[in-house]
Write a structure and sequence with these properties.
Length: about 90
């Protein structure tokens, strides 16, 4: 359980950033996300969809609970966060 809390806390700045957004969609490059969270993303963030979508990962649970889903655009090295209209259960 402690590992989960640490992981979610580590990515808290992106959750706060998303919470401050007014629109239903936010596009960020990997570099922008690194600037927001204040550390380099792991290599898997650039190559593995599950880094952004696997609900077992604490950071994914955190933005899902905040009402967002991540959609990957690997060729353009960016993430499109979309508000989850259906709630956290999707």
């Amino acid at each position: 359980m402690q590992r989960t809390a640490r992981g979610a806390t580590k990515y808290r700045p992106i959750i706060a950033y998303l919470a401050a957004q007014r629109g239903s969609e936010v596009t960020c490059t990997f570099a922008q996300i690194e600037g927001i969270v204040g550390f380099p993303l792991p290599r898997t963030a650039r190559t593995v969809t599950g880094f952004w979508t696997d609900r077992l990962r604490p950071h994914v649970r955190a933005w899902k609970q905040a009402g967002w889903q991540a959609h990957l655009d690997f060729p353009n090295r960016r993430v499109i966060f979309r508000r989850d209209a259906g709630g956290e259960s999707t």
